[in-house]
Amino acid sequence: MTSVLLITFAATLIYISIANRLLTYINILAFQGLLLFGVSFIELNEINTVNLIFILLETIVFKTLAVPLFLGYVIKKNRITREAEPYLPNFLSLVIVTLIIIATFLISNIIHDPRLDKVYFVVALSSLFTGLYIIMTRKKLITHVMGFLIIENGVFILSLAVGAEMPMLVNTGILLDLFVSVLLLGVFVNKIGDVLPSADVDQLQNLKD
Amino acid sequence: MLQWALIAWSFLHRDEEALYGFFKSDALALILLTTLGIVAIPAFYHSYIYLSGPEENPRERGIFFMSMTMLLAAISGAYLSNHIAVTWVFVELTTLAASGLIYYHRDAAALEGTWKYIFVCSISITFVFIGILFLSIALQQAGHVELTYPALLHAAGSLHIFWLRLAFIFIFTGFTAKLGLVPMYTAGIDAKDKAPSPAGALLSSVLMNTGFVGFFRFYEIIAQTAIHDWADNVIFIAAGLSVFVAAVYMIKVENIKRMLAYSSIEHIGLVMLGVAAGGIGYYAAILHLVLHAFVKSSMFFQMGQVYRIYRSKYISDTGNYFHYNLPGAIVLLLAFICATAMPPSGLFISEFMIFRALFEGHHLFILLVVLILLTVIIWALGKNLFRLLFAPPVHFDAAKAGKVPGYESVSQFVLLGMVIYLGFNPPDFMVELIQDAVKNVGR
Questions:
Q1: Does residue B142 belong to the interface with chain A, where contact is any CB pair within 8 Å?
Q2: Same domain, B218 and B341
Q3: B331 lies in which domain range?
Q4: Using one digit for the tens of pLDDT, what is the confidence trace for B325-370?
Q5: B214/B264 same-domain check
Q6: Are the Cβ atoms of A155 and B249 closer than 8 angstroms?
Q7: N or C: which end of chain B has fewer CB within 10 A?
């Protein structure tokens, strides 16, 4: 069951590489939160209840509801246009993200570890690199934040893989998630809307040598 | 008042041996914490001067001092922590605190610097976390669950090489953002440029040391394993590229604060070369780190005074600094001698030891390239600083020059004096502390 959910997660990565509208990105992020909720619900049945409730709340409330709603609010408030504005054509993005997944799959074949499920490893690493790829190739700052959220999701999956024995690491990862998302989204996207005329990367090219 | 309480607090911590299970003030922490305490006093003094102008409003001043206190506390926490995840949490807190300092001016450029800094630091902190996860996978395989440094050191030999390599790559890349090495150095440059100069002094000295602590404690673990040589090669590449990048940018950079930031990158590159070369290089690396913190912070403090006189950070707008601020000009001249590691400076000793380590480790090619690059850097730094000091200013109305009292330069004289003194005549406890700090990595 977790494998199905994780493979669906990998499919969302491919979908996000060809998505055109910001709304689609937000929906995908919400859906990923839901998938993570399912994975952690099934996987983390050994840890104590309070901890489990904390993790589940984080995935369902924070990842699935709060962040997407807030992203939508930020987009509306700063009147960001709906297009994602990638630098590369969508077809190329599709190819590259597929290649990322295949490459992580090949890497995972080196591992001979009975304790670690390879699916976790593949999905986590590929969402990490997909997030980086989206940050590199999209023009808007808000899509950079979304790319970062995808990286965070990947980290969450990886921490689930070790989480059964070290629940502290899962919690730390969640704290990272909350902390950085609140910092990036709450403080700065608002401020950037106030100070700069449009939230594009182009606006942030004055500091250079 | 709060800041003095904090300094007293950090000095109190210096003498304690162990706090909780998560913290332990070992030799490395002690020596860097002492450095922090020494740099913090002038940093608060100069921030007070910086913020006492009529146009500064109390709210922003409050945020600035709060961020600075928080930054110092977070840095102290990162130095002292005895658990890899605790180090990580404190390094993350430094990002938050530093962003408060960088955003002080609240204009578009400061916002840009802050945004870039937060974004790059967030990504790199995530990288460190991924590295820690890989490390924990390796630990679980070996049947351990403890993530404290002594436990890791103890278990190091039994860890699986594949996971350890992955962990090293991610943790190293992650800490380079704080450290100012090649993959992630960009954020630091903008941050040091945009932050007020007392904050820039902290960012380019003690905050870089934080990155070093995070890296070095993990390196101690790697040094016990079979991939020590491989890790050294990775560090060689990153450090060599850092010196190269610093040399290239220092030739063309116009803004003095950015030039100083690139000079920091060059020095950290040298420190990492020392670490990678091994042998006497470890000792030299930590000595270099401490002395560099003094030199670079004094240069940034002086930059605040330069800015108050010329109202500009660009080299083309400045000149004839001897005429406007004689003690400050002497500070810059001394700092130039110290930063380029010319003989009276203590950095000469540490740099010489680093080169000796490279020579003894048979890394002649790297040594040769680095020496050529250093020559370029000295030329570039000298060209710009001497223009500031001696050349007549081009578009500058002498009547508009700000007034800076000479006694503000006293703190820099003290710092630079310490650099020279500590280089030639290091007190015994300092030598002992450094040797104790590097005892785990000796081959």
A1: no
A2: no
A3: 253-443
A4: 888 888 888 888 888 888 878 888 898 999 999 988 888 888 999 9
A5: no
A6: no
A7: N
**How far apart are alpha carbons B152 and B138 in whole angstroms?**
11
Q: Quote the CA–CA distance of B213 and B28 in Å, as a whole number.
A: 8
Same domain, B317 and B204: no
Q: Which amino acid is at B329?
A: A
Asked if the structure places residue A207 within a domain, the reply is no
> Is B119 in contact with A196 (Cβ distance < 8 A)?
no
Note down the domain range covering A160: 2-201
Phi, psi for residue B147 in degrees, rounded to 5 = -110, 15
B364-395 as b/e: b if 16+ CB within 10 A = eebbeebeebbebbbebbeebbebbbeeebee
- Most confident segment among B14-18, B21-25, B182-186: B182-186
B1 touches chain A (CB under 8 A): no
User: A93-102, A113-122, B275-284 — which is least confidently predicted?
Assistant: A113-122
Contacts of B188 in chain A (CB under 8 A): none
pTM of the full structure: 0.90
Mean pLDDT over A119-124 rounds to 88
Q: Which of B433, B421, B341 is nearest to B382 (CA)?
A: B341
- ipTM confidence score: 0.89
Give CA–CA dist A157/B276, Å, rounded: 34
Residue B280 is assigned to a structural domain of this protein:
yes
Measure CB to CB from residue B133 to each of A115, A159, A204 and give the nearest one: A159
Instruction: Count the domains in chain B.
Output: 2
Concatenate the DSSP letters of all residues of A38-88 into one string.
HHHHHH--SS-HHHHHHHHHIIIIIIIIIHHHHHHHHHHHTT--SB--BSS
Write the residue in B113, B114, B136 that is nearest to A166 by C-beta: B136
Q: Is residue A95 in some structural domain? A: yes
Per CB-CB distance under 8 Å, the chain A contacts of B125 are 176, 180
- The residues pairing with B81 across neighbouring beta strands, listed in sequence order, are B23
B141 has a chain A CB within 8 A of its CB: yes
What is the count of structural domains for chain A?
A: 1
Mean pLDDT throughout A177-192?
71
Q: Is residue A145 part of a domain?
A: yes
Q: Residues B298, B214: one domain?
A: no
Q: Do B209 and B70 share a structural domain?
A: yes
Q: Is the pLDDT of residue A165 over 70?
A: no
